[in-house]
Amino acid sequence: MAACKSAVDPNGIVRIPSASLPITCKLQAPPNGVSMETVEFFPSGSSKPTSYAITNGQSFSIPAMPQGAKGDLYVRIGGPYDGANPLWVVEDCDGQSPILAITSSAAKYASTQLEVF
Question: 29, 56, 60, 100: which one has the fewest Cβ atoms less than 10 Å from its Cβ?
Answer without folding.
Answer: 56
